[in-house]
Amino acid sequence: MRWRSFLSSGAAHLVALLLTALYLVPLLYMVMVSLVPTGESTLELPGRLAWENYGAAIAASDFPLFFVNSTLVAVVASVAQILLSCMAGYALAKLPVRHGNTIMLLLIALLVLPPEIVMVPLFVISNKFPLLGGNDLFGSGGMGMLDTYAGLILPHLASALAIFLMRQFYKDLPDELGQAARVDGAGEWRIFLRIYTP
């Protein structure tokens, strides 16, 4: 029995090691290629590491601006998505929402849509958004939300997967916690923020 357990754990470790290599080899190759001096072959190990390649790449573009933009969009979109997903998940799990099951079915249906399908419609919506970026009431005449932080952040505020996961999380928590807090005089916001979410 011990031998069989050793073999199964060894096989699991071997599979984990192979998967780790599968993910790390392309990353290490990318780093190696980035350090190859100009004119040398990228198929063999470099004779010396050309760290100046990174300096040249940063100097050739407005890298600090790109970094700040990416960081700002990622942080704001992530925090907002977590907050909105927590609120939506709590409402669908613990509050008497009309047609809550239908909403959940629609969210699950959204999970099967690949992001590439919604990319063009999101671009059109960002471009034709009314009363922003010079657009009139009907969404024409300007740039809409193109080249703005709002155009990058707003499409990522709601995520069907995040709402689904948060709903499942809140659904697993006992209803008695909220009922006891209501008896003590707590409102829904306090129950959400102080009882269920922490």
UniProtKB/TrEMBL annotation:
GO BP term (any one): transmembrane transport
Coiled coil: none
Superkingdom, natural source: Bacteria
Protein name listed in UniProt: Carbohydrate ABC transporter permease
Transport among keywords: yes
Chain segments annotated as transmembrane: 12-36, 72-93, 105-126, 146-166
Keyword annotations: Cell membrane, Membrane, Transmembrane, Transmembrane helix, Transport
Keyword ATP-binding recorded: no
Location(s) in or outside the cell: Cell membrane
Family: Belongs to the binding-protein-dependent transport system permease family.
Entry's Gene Ontology cellular component terms: plasma membrane
Residue span(s) of domain ABC transmembrane type-1: 67-198
InterPro entries assigned: MetI-like, MetI-like_sf
Membrane topology: Multi-pass membrane protein
PROSITE patterns the record matches: ABC_TM1 (PS50928)
Gene3D superfamilies: MetI-like
Cross-referenced CDD domains: TM_PBP2
